[in-house]
Amino acid sequence: MTPRSPRGIVVRLAAGVAALSFALVGCVAADGSALAPDLPSPEPGAIRVVATTTVLADLVARVGGSLIRVTSLVPKGGEIHTFDPRPATLVAISEASLVVVNGLGLDDPLTDLVGTVGSKGPVLRLGDALPPGSILVEEGLANPHAWLNVAHARSYVAAIATALEAILPAKASQIATQAAAFDARLAELDAWTRTQLAAVPQANRKVIVLHDAFPYFAEAYGLEVIGSVISTPGQDPSAGEIADLLAAIKSSGARAIFSEAQFSDKLAHAIADEARMVVESNLYDDTLGDAPADSYEGLIRWDVDRIVAALR
Amino acid sequence: MELVVDPLTHAFFVRAMLAAILVGTVCAVVGTYVVLKGLAFIGEAVSHAAFPGLVAAFVFKVPFLLGAGVAAVGTALGIGLVIRRTRIRTDTAIGVIFVGMFALGLFWYSAIKGFVADLFSFLFGNILAISTGDLVSLVALGALILVVVLVLWKELLYATFDPLAAAASGLPVGLLEYLFLVLVALTIVVSLQAVGIILVVAMLITPAATAQLLSIHFNRLMLLAVVIGVGGAILGLYASYWLNVASGATIVLVETAVFGLALVLGPRTGLASRRRRGTSAP
Amino acid sequence: MTHPHDARSHEHASHLPPIGSAAGIDAGHARAHADVWLSDVTAGYGDRLALNGVNLAVEAGSLLAVVGPNGAGKSTLLKLIAGLLKPWSGRVEVLGHRPGVAARRVAYVPQAETVDWQFPVTVEDVVMMGRYPALGVLRRPGRDDHRAVTAALEKVSMAQHAGTQIGALSGGQRRRVFLARALASEPDLFLLDEPVTGVDITTQQELMDILEGEAKRGKTVIATTHDLPTAAERFQQVAAINRTVVAFGPASLILDPDVLARTYGGHVLVLGGQRAILDDAHHHDEAHGREAHFHEESRPAQPHRHRGPRPATRDESRDAGSTTDGEG
Predict the structure, then answer these.
(1) Inter-chain contact A118–B114, Cβ cutoff 8 Å?
(2) In a domain, A121, yes or no
């Protein structure tokens, strides 16, 4: 009836679970939210800045340089919509002299969290810095992914520079210089992207996306997004929605499905098989990836290369 | 020492600590009755049933506490009614109701356009993200629960131990039963934000179950459950801070570990002598 | 509402001539000075009939044994009087009111199996519970209450076990504690479900002495029992029950072969002056018999106690009607 020494078994089992837990915690802790290695390391006395995503964190870091220490709340590869903050995240928020969020519905829960936890400095909402009329709205909801239009990213950079200059008035000229230098590189990136996309034949410019992250990119660089597979991240589409999408694909002759690295591409492949399309499932939008997509510039170049290759 | 004091310099951690103490206390007190009545499954049901309430609160822009409270209390009373008034087996009735309610929550959730990450945080909870306003309402609700238990201490004890004799001697046992289910529902609502729907039953059951291994006196058992509940919550909170892992899960793991210790080392260890339950519990 | 057993029970009852003045009570005068009065009461669980056409009047100061085979409705009768079960039809009056109204003057002691004896309370705690209803909400037990508890514990010779956890008690001690709780509430009416079943002879005698004493003080005591010799020797009156009141009268009545035959369906064995019941119903209905006995492991089995697994006691609805099936 009783197994040999139940006590021993329980103790051994517990020890095993504990050991495994510590090993897992160790692994996870090692994978921080490290930004690109080419960024200057923060100097002593650097102020702490928190951004909601790695993409925004990279923009902030380029402007602030060594004057700031930037942390992204959602780690690299993390999903902003299902993000569960860790204690260290909250410590970062409470110590932050500036909190940079995107707004437009991308990171509202995180912005609420910042409000709840309380930060030392103000919250900068980058979406508010976009030129009037440039925000894309669908079914009453703003699309937040403005930074995928490089011109909008330049607006973000300008807003970040203004905010940092207000917080560090003594360093205002250094910040302005760094911002100007980065803005020049973004102008170049914008031009390069236009040139690359120009090579795509007009007939091939209709695409399907897994999640609706590319309207700003499409608008700026001349693609047409026929539809998206997932209307809300974390929610699978209904059978009816998939049928509608397949009908839209058929009537439009869309050529490729674009999907992001952080999502499972199962659904994209299922639809692509049905409609005989190309799947490009390794794009980045909400989060940075590994090198060379480990900076904003790298992300845009990575995506453009893959999009052009898929549509050529 | 720094390890202990350092987190307390952050206001959010202090709030989380207060919430942990509150949740630990309320859960242990109500959980003692839950364990003695053998109603753990009802706790599970009620916590999942709170989900559609949370979704509805999100849609109609009312406080989450209100939505979760209405759904949880409604389900608890519904379960009570089904148990008392129909001939369906209790576990069957509970199973049907709680999965049905959770499905209703998912159904509504999937119908919402836009991002509802807040709802995710209720599945797993985040004690660190409790605002001052939340904390105030939690303290009020928690205090209410504790006061009710304190006022009806004798009556709840008698009705739990021997419902037949208690009823025959004039105690409104049926009413106490429903009231108790409401207390369980409110306790779960108080704890939801801290540990989330999925883990809340552990907060309710584990400290009392541990105390049951260590004491045979009702008052001491409940006190011990409170000590274990509050201690586990505080220790778990610190551990999650030091290790930078989810606090709800860490708190539950600490309490589970304490239970394991009591099981292996305790004087009334369940391993040595398996506890036999009588045929009680209404 | 029709019940499958209705017809049958009526038939069963109808070919029995009334015994003495027992089964049929001429309601009028009996009701006036009865502590417990039932008139044409029908009751059951769910859709199962347990008692049919019950008439009974128990006067103040009575010491009444309720006897009958398993599933005869003995516990049901007590629950009706205690207000735990509502009759389907008929009238019940307890201490001059509807059942439950004078609940604080009633002490009901359920069968031992209905509570969890591992519950973390001490002997003293349990006996103190008897004081709770009268104390009311918010008031803590005072000196009077502690005195009453101590007195009750002394009465049942359990004072030295006041601090013992109830799980550590023997079967006999558990019955003593339950009786002490009833005593502590200082009731006018005791309703005891199998108070002396399955306990040793000494305990049985002591508990009966106490009940006799209460009856002598003018309290009314109604107890169910399986133990016919005890019923005959230690009680004043007996009510033989088998889905209805088969016989009611002085305790010696139960030794009458005719009464026994009608109550137990003829399965009676006479063993050297004492009577034992070979109750067929036990064997048919053990798996879900309601009138479960309290088994004390150490005690040798007695002729009338059935052996075998302890039946579930809680689900009243399953068995109440099925028992008489075995008696045809």
Answers:
(1) no
(2) yes
